[in-house]
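Design review, sub-item: ligand-bound model
Attendees: FS, YL, KQ
YL presented the inputs for the iron/sulfur cluster complex:
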Amino acid sequence: MALLCDNLISDIKMKKYYIETFGCQANVKDSQAMSGTLDAMDFSQTDDYKGADVIIINTCSVRQKSEDKVYGWGMKLGNPIAHEVQMYEKKGHQIVFVTGCMIGSAKGDRKRYDIKVMKDKMPWADYMLAPDEEYKIPEILVKEGLVSEWTGAALFPDVAPEKRAAPIAYINISTGCDNFCTFCVVPYARGKEVSRNQEEILHEINHLVSRGYKRVLLIGQNVNSWGLDTKTKFNLRAGSEHKIPFAKLLREVHKIDGIEKISFISSNPFDFTQDLIDTLSLPKIDRYLHMAVQSGNNEILKAMNRRHTIEEFKELVTKIKKTVPDITFGTDIIVGFPGENEEQFMDTVELFKWMKFNVAFISIYSPRIGTNAQKNLKDDVPLKEKKRRHKYLMDVWKSTIS
Ligand code: SF4
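KQ shared the predicted structure:
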């Protein structure tokens, strides 16, 4: 009997999962939740996908290149194009989940693709789950016979502990986005913006502090609009006097004993109010601020449906620096947006020289199916020219930080 039990236990412990994460902090956070769920079901994580019983590919669809990497993943598991080709490595018992934004883009009210497109391109995937469906993994593993009904039920729907990477605990404060910047897939892939309530967030942080965490990163697609209704958030402007719930939340987190550093991402200029600027001087708030400006030219910003001008951005930065002189900045930039001419591009270059960003994610524009820019704006900057602008801006950026 003892031998039987030992065998059963070692059999359970032998189950392994492999997880590959593409994209931003929101995906990293979701992967931590899925890892925590699988750990709680006595799976162990492996770096070798070939030996895994469960493979999870957590996808990003922000750029075509990100999606292509996922389709390329199929080459590891089998031929992604020819359905009839026998998958040469995927073992009979291996279960492959594709999760994240690519699947979110093919499901729900705001979908950009038909799920059939995904299924045709990834015939090696057994299950395709949008970000808001990832909690179903235990239920599916029960159905597949990989875990017992009892274990799966204990973790269903979403009570599994997350496997966080020390030393920073990622905390989701909101999901989705309603801003619809014309180039962006997030409002489609992650759906409507929904804020978690304050009590739940503070409870989670207090719990993490009791487990020894000292640093938190608050995550949302646009954290500034946390807790606001749609009408109010669209009326906010950079540097305006409105009191916003996110600033209040930061103050509440700041009061928690044991927390030493608080960071947040993503923040946009258009709803960065004076109230929020004031919180930056609190001693535990990170002195690095990531704020996506996207372009240095007002016409391009308008075409991108960004609700700030460069004058407002500069004024905001000036106020922030006055409040927190030792702050450093990071940003996201797109070059070669539809209609961007040389003069408009040089406005971005000038902004870089003025800002001296410490961190810059500079991307070449690529049209994303179903977005407003893809449907309504001509992708008229030749790729060669986009690459030249990318290199030029990279060189300018490097020269400003050296
Ligand atoms: S604010 Fe704009 S760029 Fe950021 S996630 Fe929302 S739509 Fe995308």
